[in-house]
Design a protein that fits this description.
Among the domains are: 128 residues, Tetratricopeptide repeat domain (Serine Threonine Protein Phosphatase 5, Tetratricopeptide repeat, Alpha Horseshoe), CATH 1.25.40; 107 residues, Tetratricopeptide repeat domain (Serine Threonine Protein Phosphatase 5, Tetratricopeptide repeat, Alpha Horseshoe); 113 residues, Glutaredoxin (3-Layer(aba) Sandwich); 122 residues, no CATH class; 102 residues, Serine Threonine Protein Phosphatase 5, Tetratricopeptide repeat (Alpha Horseshoe). It contains 45 helices and five strands. A five-stranded mixed beta sheet has the order 1-2-3-5-4. The protein binds zinc ion. Zinc ion binds next to helix 25 and helix 26. The site of zinc ion (ZN) has 4 residues, from helix 25 and helix 26. It comes from Thalassoglobus polymorphus. InterPro entries: Peptidase_MA-like_dom, TPR-like_helical_dom_sf, TPR_rpt.
């Protein structure tokens, strides 16, 4: 021990001496060159210093790392090997060598260095307790398969505890959190490190990644700082490339790839991205050429195919994507990222058996992987689901929900399949898989691979649809039928284009088809969209995909859906439905949308202008005579004679919609329903198109009801449901009114509309059952009664009895007998049931 200490001491002195006298630069300056991306200068400076005999492994490490970053793999390994002659005890040099040698295809060296590190640490563990060595050892043991949590505590956390200001442990902890997709933790790790090292591009880049999913603006800020500090920061450049590819901005992406390749002409990920861009544009040959280049150094680098496949899958090309993951796994059977991606691909392709099998395998090897753990848990949950088999579909729902409204889902999807396949002239695979989840977390794991991705009602992957069930939407129920119709339209268009479709067109057609099926479904023009259109917020068609990818706000996403549907609507109206079909055919063979649209419609620029005109006209017509400014509500509230003031104000401001509504609300609060009605009537007359809870039609209907004005109430509600597909209260009331009027067709109609939104409550099923009985539609009556029975009502005997009668009418005597026996089981002295049973027995004899 003694000798070692002396060796270090003398080395230290020596280093100081050479540092100041000979090399002209100290090691910190060289580290900065490395950190700020001046790799060539870094290599020359360190080389000079080493030539002159500086002491310390760091000089060699910095040089080798700069060589590694610039793709000079041979030089890098040479630097390390010659350094090892002098610093034979260095594990950091060996660890770096282990990163380099795969690029030289010298796998045997990985093994050699692995063994050496293990031996050295075992022999003299005390030697490797400084910040850098602890971090290196942490990385090393994790790669050797150690428990990540334990390794994190034993090495990274310990290193940080001993060196709270050092960048390395903070970086290691932050990056590990990023790897585990724990972004909040990552932000907590990088945050304080940023305070200590505000100029460190690796730390600012960590922050950019940590905020990428939650706050795009903050993330972008950190990304800009990163690139200002180090314009050659390859991970930051590639992060942007990834984003540009998502946005279909391939030119911008390619420019950044070029920039990356200037730093490292062999960079495998950069070349993989180059390959993806070519493949996405159907340039297969160029794509494979770039892939071969990416593999020209490290021949079995699994990251290359994994990256290509991952991006293809993000563009819905799951089949191709899966093939690349399989290739990556052939290169390295233990490459977990490829396995995880492949699981998702297989599940999205509907190849469930293979997908789950692989999930089990990965889970067994790595029980701590959160994503895979979630999937395996989900699979257990799914096994409790009921599978409904229908022609063309396999529908998975929770057992309870399947019994209550499964038959309605089948009916709707069957209709969608019939209507949309005919309309789009597209045959579909035999079975489309539809999964409906009562628990949002299960939906999120199945759909996105992780919980916490909120805001989606349903998602379509081509031949697989996932959706949230109404059970998860108590507060804001949405129309499940319109969601399923929308998703099924995706099934058709994705199949028609072989999944080669820009997001906006796919969404545009789906929203458009919702409105075609039911005028109240889908996105509609509203005041917000009107203002956005007139405020110049329409996007050119060429930038539509970006609107989905980086929206300024949640409203902008909704607006993107709406605008996309307007483009589709305009194309169909002006150029005919066939031209849309031709565009889809072009996409199917790999043509770019911006090339195809002019072929069958008009040049993009003209199309953009037409769209602006079309949308502006709609927006101008929408509430044309309305004055849209905000009223001075504070003044209204202070009025001592609200009825008088309101009417006088209305006379003076007959076009002030929001003002009329505000007065109406104040009068309702004061209990003056009659005057309130006058105000609301003026509002509705001026602008009858507002759906939702703020609609004056809803309040007006309530006021009419209070006044006993039944017909006016009904008319107001009818107006509302024409423009609102989830107006639960209105459906309820219309169902009631129709029931009082014994208008059974109307009862059926509104019960059905209510069921599309709230299929898990009894009232609409009960109303539908009764209406169907009156209309002598026995099958529909039986379905509704089965739904009711599944809801476990109190009076089951009566329901079984009524069901038996309907079954008898259909000539289903055995079933009828079973039902009546069930009725008698509930109520043994049920006289009518006994009579019916006797009749059924007699008719059988
Ligand atoms: Zn959609």
């Amino acid at each position: 021990m003694e000798s070692v200490r002396r060796l270090f001491l003398s080395g230290f002195v020596f280093c100081l001496w050479t540092g100041s006298v000979c090399s002209g630069a100290d090691i910190d300056q060289c580290r900065e060159l490395l950190l700020y991306g001046e790799y060539e200068k870094c290599i020359t400076t360190t080389a000079e210093a080493i030539e002159q005999g500086v002491y310390g492994e760091s000089w060699h490490l910095v040089k080798a790392e700069a060589e590694f970053k610039t793709g000079k793999y041979e030089e890098s390994l040479k630097t390390i090997q010659s350094a090892l002659e002098r610093y034979g005890w260095s594990i950091r040099l060996r660890w770096l060598a282990m990163q380099v040698v795969p690029y030289l295809n010298q796998d045997e060296l990985v093994l050699k260095y692995t063994e050496e590190i293990a031996q050295m640490v075992q022999a003299s563990p005390w030697r490797y307790t400084d910040a850098e060595n602890l971090v290196t050892l942490g990385h090393f043991v994790i790669e050797q398969g150690a428990d990540v949590k334990a390794a994190q505590d034993a090495f990274f956390t310990r290193s940080r505890r001993n060196n709270p200001l050092h960048r390395s442990p903070a970086l290691a902890l932050g990056n590990l959190a990023l790897e585990k997709r724990d972004f909040q933790l990552a932000a907590e790790m990088f945050g304080p490190a940023f305070e200590d090292h505000p100029d460190d591009p690796d730390i600012t880049f960590g922050l950019a990644l940590a905020f990428a999913g939650s706050d795009r603006e903050v993330s972008n800020g950190y990304l800009q700082v990163t690139l200002e500090k180090n314009s050659n920061h390859i991970p930051a450049l590639l992060f942007q490339v990834d984003h540009f590819i998502d946005a279909e901005q391939y030119e911008e992406a390619s420019a950044l790839i070029e920039r990356t390749l200037k730093v490292n002409p062999h960079h495998p990920e950069a070349l993989a991205y180059q390959s993806v861009i070519a493949l996405l544009q159907e340039e297969t040959e160029a794509g494979m050429k770039a892939r071969n280049l990416a593999l020209s150094t490290w021949k079995k680098n699994p990251l290359v195919d994994h990256t290509i496949g991952r991006k293809l899958s993000q563009k819905y090309r799951f089949e191709q994507g899966a093939t690349f993951q399989e290739q990556a796994l052939e290169f390295d059977p233990n490459f977990t990222p490829a396995k995880k991606q492949l699981i998702q691909d297989l599940l999205r392709l509907g190849r469930e058996e293979e997908g789950w099998k692989l999930a089990d395998e990965v889970h067994e090897k790595d029980p701590y992987d959160v994503a895979v753990y979630n999937l395996v848990t989900l699979r257990d949950e799914l096994q409790k689901f009921e599978t409904l088999e229908a022609s063309g579909f396999q529908i998975r729902m929770s057992t309870d929900e399947a019994k209550i409204y499964g038959h309605r889902v089948i009916q709707l999807l069957t209709e969608a399949r019939e209507v949309l396949t005919q309309k789009y002239k597209q045959e579909l695979p035999e079975t489309i898989l539809v999964e409906i989840f009562p628990r949002p977390a299960d939906f999120e794991v199945r759909t996105f691979g992780m919980p916490g991705v909120v805001g989606y009602l349903g998602v379509c992957f081509g031949d697989v649809i996932t959706a949230n069930s109404p059970a998860s939407q108590d507060a804001n129920p949405v129309n499940l039928e319109s969601v399923l119709w929308h998703e099924f339209a995706h099934v058709v268009t994705l199949n028609k284009t072989n999944n080669r479709m820009p997001r906006w067109l796919s969404e545009g057609i789906s929203v458009y088809e919702e409105r075609q099926r039911d005028a109240s479904w889908g996105e509609h023009l509203n005041v917000t969209y009107r203002n956005m259109i007139l405020g110049g917020e329409l996007s050119p068609i060429g930038e539509m995909s970006e609107m989905f990818l980086s929206p300024k706000s949640p409203v902008h996403v909704q607006f993107a859906y709406y605008q996309s549907s307007l483009i589709v609507e305009h194309i169909i109206e002006k150029y005919g439905f066939d031209s849309l079909l031709k565009v889809l055919d072009d996409l199917a063979v790999g043509m770019n949308i911006n090339e195809s649209l002019p072929r069958h419609t008009a040049p993009l620029k003209q199309l953009d202008e037409e769209l602006v005109m079309y949308a502006t006209e709609l927006a101008t017509e929408y509430g044309k005579n309305v004055e849209w400014s905000e009223p001075a509500i504070a003044e209204f509230i202070q009025s001592s004679e609200p009825a008088k003031d309101a009417l006088a104000w209305a006379d003076e401001n007959p076009k002030h919609y929001l003002g009329l509504k505000a007065w109406g609300r104040i009068l309702v609060e004061k209990g003056d329903s009659k005057t309130a009605i006058q105000l609301y009537e003026k509002a509705v007359e001026l602008f009858p198109s507002e759906p939702g809870p703020e609609s004056p039609l809803l309040t007006l209907a309530k006021l009419y009801q209070e006044q006993g004005e039944n017909d006016k109430e009904k008319q107001a509600l009818l107006k509302l449901v024409k423009i609102d597909d989830d107006a639960v209260a209105a459906f309820f009331r219309l169902m009631e009114i129709a029931n009082d009027e014994k208008d059974w067709e109307a009862v059926k109609q509104f019960a059905s509309k209510l069921l599309a939104v709230k299929p898990l409550i009894a009232q609409p099923h009960a109303a539908l059952a009764a209406a169907s009985e009156h209309l002598e539609e026995s099958e529909s009556a039986i379905d509704a009664m089965d739904s009711l029975l599944a809801l476990k009502p109190a009076d089951r005997a009566d329901l079984y009895y009524r069901k038996a009668i309907q079954q008898q009418k259909l000539g289903q005597h055995d079933s009828a007998r079973r039902s009546v026996l069930q009725a008698l089981e509930e109520a043994p002295r049920y006289r009518e049931a006994l009579v019916l049973l006797q009749g059924l027995v007699d008719s059988n004899e």
